[in-house]
């Protein structure tokens, strides 16, 4: 019981939600909620799930809270290569390869690179970074970008891009302990990025320096699965890097002879 009360109270406070606000959201009296958090009452499974729903808890946080309360977890965490995940792999492959001219990759919750397409191989070749030269396995996008000699060294708008990427990962890490540990590891090598004035595009642009001196400009779009019921599936996102100008589109088309992994 003590473990459950500590887990749930920490989750509520991490969301910066008061007991009164949570009680109103979940339809549970504040007195009963207080008793649950102090261990004087045990939340039933349905009540606990209602409270977790009201907090917007991640699937992993829901499982942790349910286990701490003595209940079976509600969500599985299947490996992506499990047989029952075949439809998911097929959907990801379709998203990646439908437009192979557009660099795309699949990331998990810790920014590990799970899948890539031919467009990404072409981009890496233009940057002089063949995939086999990337450090470590599995490949991790944060390590690739934020390592001292990483991709940020080729980024013309380094402060703008890295500041936004770090801020986004930091927000996600509030609820993902493994991602938080990775950011803590990388933080020592980083300089602080202050507020950056946005550019002319309505989206954040990624401007990279190719080996031939050309500037390659992209903007990104993310796709994720709606209403996922599996922890692995909930963590996955597909990032497409769309060319922001005709010169970049032409450069990718000209690199079409490069093969994918």
Structure description:
The chain has 261 residues and is of the alpha+beta class. The chain has two domains: 2-68, lambda repressor-like DNA-binding domains (434 Repressor (Amino-terminal Domain), Orthogonal Bundle), CATH 1.10.260.40; 83-254, Beta-Lactamase. It has twelve helices and five strands. A five-stranded antiparallel β-sheet has the order 2-1-5-4-3, with helices on both faces. The radius of gyration is 22 Å and the shape is elongated.
Give the structure's gist in a few sentences:
By secondary structure, the chain is α+β, with helices and mostly antiparallel strands. The protein is built from 12 helices and 5 strands. It folds into 2 domains: 2-68, Orthogonal Bundle (434 Repressor (Amino-terminal Domain)); 83-254, 2-Layer Sandwich (Beta-Lactamase), CATH 3.30.450.180.
Pick out the low-confidence regions.
none
Distance between the termini: 50 Å
In total, the number of domains comes to 2
Write down the overall geometry: elongated
Question: How many distinct helices?
Answer: 12
Give the amount of beta strand, in percent.
5-15%
- CATH third-tier fold name of the largest domain: Beta-Lactamase
If you compute it from the alpha carbons, what radius of gyration comes out, rounded to the nearest whole angstrom? 22 Å
Q: What's the average pLDDT? A: 86
Strand numbers in spatial order across the main sheet? 2-1-5-4-3
How many extended strands? 5
Helix content: 40-55%
CATH class of the largest domain: Alpha Beta
The assigned structural class equals alpha+beta
GO molecular function: DNA binding
Domain HTH cro/C1-type: 8-62
Organism: Pelomonas aquatica
Protein name: XRE family transcriptional regulator
